[in-house]
Amino acid sequence: ETVFEHILEEMERLLPFDSTSIQLVNPERNALQVVLAKGFADNEAVLRLEPFSLQAPVPNAEVFLKGKPRRYGEVAREFPHFSSPKYYVDEINSWMGVPLIVGQETLGVITLDSKEKGLYTVEHETVLMTFASHAAAALYNTDLYEKANRRADELTREYGNVSATSVGAIQRSLLVLEQQGADQFFGEPALLLSDL
After folding, report:
1. What is the CA radius of gyration of the chain?
2. 77 or 157, which is more confident
C-alpha cells in the first residue's frame, strides 16, 4: 500500500467528496502534477493530464502559491474550465483545496470536489488542513527514506557490500592490533577504532 493510497483511505473516512486528487509540485515544469485521482469519470486519464501550470488561473495553483486553503460553493462560476470534459468531472459545484506543507516547504495540494453546491465549510477545511499536515509529513518522510535508500544503493555499487559480520571481524582485528601497539608502529592513525 502506497502512502497515497493510505492518504485516500483516511480522507474517505473523514470528509465528503465525489472526486479527489493529490497533486505534487513538479519544480522543473513549475506545475502541479496529479499523482492520485479518485471518483472521476476516468481516474487514469486524470493522472495523465498535462500538469497544471502554477501561472495558470486555476484554484489549485492559487492554493499552492499562497499556501492557504480555498473553498468554492460553485467553482465553475469563477473557473469555467471545471465544465470542460478535458478534466473528467461531472457537475462539480463545491471545490476545496488545501496545501501540503512541511516546515516552510509546500509540496503540493489536496483537492476535494462535490456535486452538491456550497458543501464545504470552515469545519471541513479545518479537518482537511489538519489531515494535510500529517499527510505532508508522511510524504516528506517517504521522500527522505527513498533518497537514503538510493544513496545506500550508490554506495553499495561504488564500494560493494560489506556485511555486518565482516565489519565486526574488521573491528575485532583492529582492536587486537591496537592492543598490540600497532597504533604506535604505524604512527598517526588513519582509522580510529572509536570512529567505528
Report:
1. 25
2. 77
Distance, CA of 78 to chain centre: 29
Burial 147-186 (b: 16+ CB within 10 A, else e): eeeeeeeeeeeeeeeeeeeeeeeeeeebeeeeeeeebeee
pLDDT above 70: residue 140: yes
The sign one gets for the Cα dihedral 165, 170, 171, 176 is: positive
**φ and ψ of 82, to 5 deg:** -65, -15
Contact by Cβ (8 Å): 55, 61: yes
Tell me the pTM: 0.72
Contact criterion met (CB below 8 Å) for 32 and 23? yes
How does pLDDT run across 11-54, given as a tens digit for each residue? 889 899 999 999 999 989 999 999 989 988 888 988 898 899 99
Higher-pLDDT residue of 148, 128 = 128
Distance from C-alpha of 170 to C-alpha of 193, rounded to nearest angstrom: 10
- Reading the block at residue 25, the C-alpha cell is 509540485
Q: Compute how many other C-beta atoms are within 10 angstroms of the C-beta atom of residue 64.
A: 25
**So what's the pLDDT on residue 108?**
94
Half-sphere exposure of 180 (CA within 13 A, CB side): 8
